[in-house]
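CO-FOLDING WORKSHEET

Operator: S.A.
Ligand of interest: 2-acetamido-2-deoxy-beta-D-glucopyranose
Run index: 314
Mode: holo prediction, single chain
Checklist:
[x] sequence pasted
[x] SMILES validated
[ ] output reviewed
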Amino acid sequence: MQFPTNLFTLLVLSLSVGRIAAQAIPTGPSVLLTNADGWATSAVRAQGGALFGGNFNLVLSAPAQIQSKAGSKSATPKPLTKPCEFNSCPAGSPAEGSDPTDGKVDAVKYGIQTVSPLYLNSTPDFVVSGVDSGNAVGAAACESGTLGAAAEAAKEGIPSAAFSGASLHPEYFNTSDPTSANSIAASLYSNLSVALVSALFNSSARPVLPAGTTLNVNFAPTSVGVAGKAKSKCATMGDFKWVFTRVVPAAKHAKDVETCGSTHLPDEETVVHSGCFAAVSVVNAHTKDDVDAATQSTVLERLKPAGLFSCFKH
Ligand SMILES: *[C@@H]1O[C@H](CO)[C@@H](O)[C@H](O)[C@H]1NC(C)=O
Ligand SMILES: *[C@@H]1O[C@H](CO)[C@@H](O)[C@H](O)[C@H]1NC(C)=O
Ligand SMILES: *[C@@H]1O[C@H](CO)[C@@H](O)[C@H](O)[C@H]1NC(C)=O
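OUTPUT RECEIVED:
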C-alpha cells in the first residue's frame, strides 16, 4: 500500500467505522487527530467517529507503531524496519509520505505542517491527542507521548488537548469486537473527549486556549465488564464527573484558581484513582508543569458555561 493512499483510506475508514459515512462533511472546526498508540487502534477510530459526529472536520496523523512512552522525543523519519502495528502496513514502508514517522511528536508536526494543509486546506483549529491507553498523571505525564504530542501542537500555535483512559488497551480496529469492554470504553472516552472540545469551542474566546498551554485530560476506569455489561456506576457518559485539577499536588504556599471554595486544586492522580472522574489539568506546553492561577482561571471561565465541572469530594 502506498502511504498517500493509505492516509486517504485511513480517513475514510475512520468515518465508516463510526457509521457516519453517509453524513455530510462536518462544517465545524477542523481537528487534527493523533494517537500515541498508533493509527490503527479501535480507540483512535472511535475518536475519529465521535469527532466527526460532533461536526468536527477531521484529519488523522498518527505513528504506525506505538509511541506511548516517547514523551517529546523527535527523530528523523526512517523507512520502517518492522511492519506497522497489527501488520496494518508492511516492513519497508516509506517513512516519508504520511503516517509512518519515527517519533510521536513527528506525527503531530507532520500532521500540522503537511497533512492538514493538504486535506483541510489550512492548519487545524485544534489537535486532539488520544484517547490513549493508560492514564498519564502526575510526574509520569511528562513522559507521556500523548501529552508530548499535544504540547508540540501548542508550541506550534495550535490549541490542543491530551486524552488518556485507564480502561483501554491498544487493539486493532479491524478485528475488535464492538461489544467488548475495550470497544465500549473507547466509545465512552471518545464521547467524553468530544464534549470537552465542544465546550471549548462554544466559548467565544479565540484561540480556545491560552497560547503555550495544553490540557492533560485523564479518564478513570470504566465499569464495563465482558460482553459490554455495565457492572456498577461508571458505564455511561453521565456517570463521569469532570473535575478541574492540577498535574502535581499543590505545594502548601502555592495558590491555584479559586473554585469549589478552595485555592488548592486536587491533583489529577488522586482524582482519577477516586472514582468515576474525568480530570482536566491546564499544562504549560514548554515545561509540562502546572500553569499559574490566572491562566487556570482563564480556562475555567471558558469551560464553566458548559456546566461540566463538579467539585471533588474525597
Ligand atoms: C480487515 O482485515 C482483513 C484481513 O486482514 C482485510 O481483508 C480487510 O480488508 C480489512 N478491513 C479493513 C476495513 O481494513
Ligand atoms: C457515544 O455517542 C454515540 C453517538 O451519540 C452513541 O451512539 C454511543 O452509544 C455513545 N457511546 C457510549 C459508550 O455511550
Ligand atoms: C454548545 O452550545 C450549544 C448552543 O448554545 C448548546 O446546545 C450545546 O449544548 C453546547 N455544548 C456544550 C458542550 O456546552
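REVIEW:
The pocket of 2-acetamido-2-deoxy-beta-D-glucopyranose (ligand 3) is lined by residues 195, 198-199, 202, 306 (CB under 6 Å).
Helices lie at 3-17, 42-53, 104-120, 145-155, 181-202, 268-272, 293-303.
[x] output reviewed
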